[in-house]
Structures are given as C-alpha cells and as structure tokens.
Amino acid sequence: MARVHNYFAGPAALPLEALKAAQEELLDFRGTGMSVMEISHRSKEFDELHNETISLFKELSGLGDNFKVLLLQGGASLQFAMVPMNFLSEGKSADYILTGAWSKKAIKEAKILGNTRVAGTTEKDGIFSSIPKQEDLDLDNNAVYCHVTSNNTIFGTQWRSFPDTGSVPLVGDMSSDILSRRFDTSRFGVIYAGAQKNLGPSGVTIVAIREDMMEKANEGLLTLLNYKTHIDKNSLFNTPPCFAIYMVNLSLKWVKERGGLDAMEKENNEKAKLIYGTIDGNKDFFRCPIEPESRSFMNVVFRLPNEDLEKKFIEDGKNAGFIGLKGHRSVGGIRVSIYNANTLDSVKDVVEFMKNFATSNG
Ligand code: PMP
Fold first, then answer.
1. What pLDDT score was predicted for residue 362?
2. If we measure between CA atoms, which residue out of 291, 288, 289 comes closest to residue 280?
3. What digits encode the pLDDT tens for the residues 69-117?
4. Strand arrangement of the beta sheet that strand 188-194 belongs to
C-alpha cells in the first residue's frame, strides 16, 4: 500500500491511526456486530460515542463549562447564515472583519439578515496579503458580535492574536485552524468549524456556543436553523452524520494520545517554520506574498519565478508523491496545507523536495 503525502486544503489528510482504527472496526463497532453506519442513532452505543466526542472536543480545546458544543450538518457555510439568524436582532448591528473569500461569504449571508458593518479589511484589488492591525479597526462597541475568520484557507493568512473587541463577543470561523493552537476561548461567543480540515471528514460541523449568547438569541426561527433546538436535543433532534462523528471521535483521540493541543501547537509551529524558512532562505526562487506577521501556520502559500515553473513544481511534486500542492484556483501559485494530521516527517520531505526543485530549476 502506497500512501501519498496529502497536502489538500480540505477535505484533507486524516491521522493514519484514525483511519486504521476505523478500518479495524468497520464491520463490528465496539462489539455490536454492526458497522457504526448501521446502528441506530438512538442506541446506547451511539449515544456513548456522541457524548464522548463532545466531551473530548471540550477537553482538548480548553472550552469552559459555559460552552455548549453542537455537532451539526450544512458545513461552515450554513453557519454563515445561522449565526446572524440567531443573534443579529432587529435594530442591532454586527461587525465583520473582512480577511478573505470566506469572510466575504459570511458577510453576504449576514447582510441578507440584518445590519452588518465591515469593521476592518486589508483587501486591495481583491487580494488579502495581511491581517488588519488593531489600530486600523473601526469597531462598534454596541455590536452584537464581531466575526473573524481565524485562518484564511485560500489567501494563507491567520490571526496570530485575536482583536480586542472589549465587551463585544467574538464569533470565529475556525474551519481551517481549529484545534491547531491554544487561544483565549473566553473572548468568543461562538466558534464554528467544518470538520474536514483539522478534525475529521466532511459532513459534520462543530459549533461551540457560550451560554450567555443564548439569552439574547432571536426567537421564532425555523426549527432546524435554531441553535436552541440543537442545544435542547444535544444535537440529536434529527439523524446526525453518524460516521463523520465517529471519525471526529477517532481523530480527537489521536490528538489526545499525541499530547493534546500543546503538542499539536508545538509541532504545527515547527512544520510552518520549516517551510517558511525554506521559502525565505531561497528568496531568488520562492516568494511568499503574505506579510511575515500574518502568515498562516496551516496553509502556506508561495509563488515561484513564473507560472510555468509553478505548473512543473505541482507536476513533479505529484510524481514524487506530494499531492494537493496547487494554490486555490482564484489566486494560483502553490499552497501547502499543513494541518494536524500532516506529520513533521512528511513536511521534512516536502522541504527537501522544494530545495531540490529550486536547485535544479533555479
Ligand atoms: N470557512 C473557511 C475558513 C473555509 O476554509 C471553508 C472551506 N474551505 C469554509 C468556511 C466553508 O466550509 P464548508 O465547505 O464546510 O461549508
């Protein structure tokens, strides 16, 4: 069996150990004699798995007891709508910091539902090469929340530390860096993330809601789009994505076995340093278009001297077993997505490939 070095941006690499565990119990989940895909979501066995997954996520992410963790469907994209639907009330306004294509989509939905302000952006001709500085933000002290995209998967930028919004709760789309590093969760009212980058496969979205947010939540919403429904029913109002939740469970266990969030963060820093170090150490060949203090530790984007060389880099990479190195179609270039499951050893191999490519093509 030849496993490749998988650098797709999402769905992305899963921990090999999690995949093997799933393979092992595919036909017989925890002694039930059935696959986890075949058992009732109302069974004792599934209930245990479901609750264990929620507790593990809370424990590993360092969320306080005042957070409710939901396992929903519809991807992060549905959260673009559910957040304003539930919290942006009549006569109030929400702040959004525009840092890339995904924030833009979040703003589009919020604008349909209520008053929305862009409280800061670094957009220039459709390009985002940095994260706004605190002093450049125009924050509304009365906003119901301030939305940030913690890591911009396409442009390759990341908030190194989150903006100070005073008493206004942050809402974070953390789809591409959830569980990759420690941060002060107490400043967030809502955190959401599609699982398919750092937590598991696609099909399930984790949403963490601070309890006090629900005191101000809108009423009279459609049942399935109302957070209260999912809180009251522990995300089991309707049939959940059982297999996706199961894979998240195995991925979380893998994180825990490897030392939890701090161990993940340490290794993620090391991986990012290796690649950025290679880019900066070969400046006549590689160029990172992102300002150093805004660089993403999850999606490293860079350019080569010309597009023909970029094509060759992607092609040669593929032949050498490095898959998914192509930058997002809207920006071009190269993108190496280094999520939790992308191992340090594999990143060392990528870096070796980069150096050799620069030497033979420079
Ligand atoms: N936000 C970010 C930061 C993303 O990277 C993505 C997907 N790549 C999304 C939102 C959309 O997620 P989904 O496809 O789960 O709706």
1. 87
2. 288
3. 999 999 999 999 999 999 999 999 999 999 999 999 999 999 999 999 9
4. 67-72, 205-210, 188-194, 170-173, 146-149, 93-98, 115-121
- CA dist 113 → 201, 227, 298 (Å): 30, 16, 31
Give all domains of the chain, ordered by start, each with its CATH number: 16-257 (3.40.640.10), 259-361 (3.90.1150.10)
Candidate of 102, 180, 339 to mutate for ligand 1, largest count of ligand atoms within 8 Å of Cβ: 102
Cα distances (angstroms) measured from residue 295 to each of 78, 174, 288: 27, 16, 9
Q: Is the pLDDT of residue 2 over 90?
A: no
Predicted pLDDT at 61: 96
Q: Is 102 assigned a catalytic role?
A: yes
The residue to which tokens 């809108």 are assigned:
218
From CA 86, how far away is CA 219, in angstroms rounded? 8
Query: Is the CB of 102 inside a 6 Å radius of any atom of ligand 1?
Result: yes
Asked if 68 is an active-site residue, the reply is: no
Q: Nearest Cα to 209, choosing from 98, 333, 58, 318? A: 58
pTM, entire model: 0.98
- Rounded to 5°, the CA angle 112-240-80 comes to 20
Distances in whole angstroms, Cα of residue 243 to Cα of each of 54, 97, 200, 259:
15, 34, 10, 25
At residue 207, what are phi and psi to the nearest 5 degrees?
-130, 125
Q: Which H helix or E strand runs over 78? A: helix 75-87
For residue range 316-358, list pLDDT tens digits in order: 999 999 999 999 999 999 999 999 999 999 999 999 999 999 9
Which amino acid, 268?
A: N
Mutate to test the pocket of ligand 1, among 72, 73, 77 (most ligand atoms within 8 A of CB): 77
Burial grade of 60 (CB within 10 A; 0-12, 13-18, 19 or more): middle
Nearest CA to ligand 1 atom 6: 175
